[in-house]
Specification:
6-blade_b-propeller_TolB-like, seven-stranded antiparallel beta sheet, disordered N terminus, 34 strands, Neuraminidase, mainly beta, 484 residues, four-stranded antiparallel beta sheet
């Protein structure tokens, strides 16, 4: 790839509209000035393929940052003539950093297969474009840009907007936007799964024996492929070890009740990775309760909780079916929490929910909500005042652009949204912005065969990409193996 502002003959050229600049505008210096000043860093992205570019560092010593004439020092900008004789020449280095450019992507929104990466907008652009980089650099390590030129004096940095850290533009390290950190969302092929599942828990009829389940709802898969199951009508949480023939009771199982060692219709369960405690949405008792080494603690009371999620910072997210909202709590600080979705009464407006069920939280704290009675899935970015519809929203039905009572929701590394379309007995995949989804598994009508589902609810992946489904009314957990 040729250097910016230099044509194939080696002569300088005028800047072109296709040149992408982050930082200063491209310019040419006038007559050379004398004296050496601190080099100005210009970072220019010129894409070699969609979403990618070459970062070129132009460091002209002296002047106001324009390119100096032949052998000259940078002048005051503009189209310059020949530089002064004997002056220091333009220092140019070209470094390919394989950074990703995000276009038509909202600030901080996902732009990579790594959900910890987001879009940092450039200064002075109106097309929602910028750099795709790691979302969580330490704010105190970022210095403000030069306010008069919106440029950076530091090597290997680029001037971007980062209002979570500071209201002024900041110099962002280019190293945090490399492809090995923030791979592209394109050039990947969507996965497919075998259509006949393997039953990995239950499947021995409805019952309360250790090899049986009774309407399993939420499930959680750990790194060892152990399955934690909210066994709804058995009022217990069971753990099925990998390849086990039966489960073991790890919470509840002492009959329906509201005592500390009892559960009443538990509907979801997660494992806190920080202390390996079990956190349970105890639906019938209207509480969120933690079990750890057979000791119990009520974390949140008086809540119609359906689903639980935890982000990488240890914040707990809870969907409140009764209040039509999702709240976030910091572990150990259970006050009122913060509303992160809904909270504006029951309804179908973009700032409302109607019977929210399951939720999924990305690393950038974007929340996805299965909005059951609105037959849609909503996406709420961090600090958003309203959500956007990313699946369904076209009334209840069985067409590819519709959902029927959605429950479980999960987002993969490509940003694709998977939904347990419970009323249609199928799992659907939606790409944000598409008019309709595509069938993943199920969709063959109600039945107990291995290619059928009966009111599926929860749907996690394991670390190999295998898809697990709580096949609720068939009283079993199904594993659909990924086809590599």
């Amino acid at each position: 790839m040729s250097r910016p502002a230099v044509n194939q003959s080696g002569k300088r050229r005028k800047p072109q509209a296709k040149d992408r600049l982050i930082g200063n505008e491209l310019g040419y210096g006038g007559n050379a000035g004398l004296g050496y000043q601190t080099p100005r860093v210009k970072v220019i992205f010129i894409p070699s393929q969609p979403q990618y570019g070459m970062a070129n560092q132009q460091c002209p010593p002296g002047g106001m940052g324009g390119y100096g004439g032949m052998g000259g020092m940078g002048g005051m900008g503009g189209m310059g003539g020949m530089g002064g004789m004997g002056g220091m020449g333009l220092l140019t280095s070209i470094v390919q950093i394989n950074s990703q450019i995000c276009e038509n992507v909202a600030q901080y929104d996902r732009c990579s297969t790594n959900s910890a990466c987001g879009c940092f907008h450039r200064i002075g652009t109106s097309d929602d474009s910028g750099v795709c980089g790691f979302l969580w650099p330490t704010c105190s390590h970022l210095v403000p840009c030069n306010v008069s030129t919106n440029s950076c004096n530091q090597l290997n940095t680029v001037c971007v907007q980062h209002p979570r850290c500071h209201e002024l533009p900041l110099c962002y390290p280019i190293a945090l936007s490399k492809q090995n950190i923030c791979p592209p969302k394109t050039n990947k092929i969507s996965s497919k799964w075998k259509q006949n599942a393997i039953t990995v828990a239950g499947g021995n009829g409805k019952g309360q024996q250790l090899n049986q389940l009774n309407n399993p709802y939420g499930i959680f898969i750990d790194e060892k492929k152990n399955i934690f199951i909210a066994d709804y009508y058995n009022h217990r949480i069971v753990e099925w070890k990998y390849n086990a023939k039966e489960g073991q009771i790890i919470a509840g199982g002492n009959g329906l009740g509201n005592q500390m060692d009892q559960l009443h219709s538990p509907i979801d369960v997660i494992v806190n990775p920080q202390n390996h405690s079990i956190i349970i949405a105890d639906w019938g008792n209207r509480r969120v309760i933690q079990w750890m080494n057979q000791k119990q603690q009520i974390l949140i009371d008086n809540i119609d909780c359906v689903s639980l999620a935890m982000d990488k910072n240890g914040f707990l997210y809870v969907s409140d079916h009764g209040k039509n909202e999702v709240r976030r709590w910091k572990i150990g600080e259970y006050n009122e929490g913060a509303i992160v979705a809904g909270g504006n009464g029951k309804g179908s407006q973009l700032n409302q929910l109607n019977d929210p069920t399951f939720i999924f939280v990305e690393e950038n704290q974007t929340v996805y909500v299965s909005d059951k009675s609105n037959n849609r899935v909503m996406k709420w970015r961090k600090d958003a005042k309203e959500g956007i519809v990313v699946a369904g929203g076209n009334g209840e039905g069985g067409n590819l652009n519709q959902l029927s009572g959605p429950h479980g929701v999960i987002v993969d590394h490509l940003g694709q949204i998977y939904v347990a379309d419970s009323g249609n007995h199928r799992i659907m995949r939606w790409c944000e912005g598409k008019e309709e989804g595509e069938l993943v598994v199920g969709g063959n009508g109600i039945g107990g065969e291995l290619n059928r589902l009966y009111r599926p609810t929860s749907l996690p992946f394991d670390d190999e990409g295998n898809l697990y489904v709580a096949d609720t009314e068939n009283h079993r957990i199904q594993k659909f193996e990924i086809m590599l």
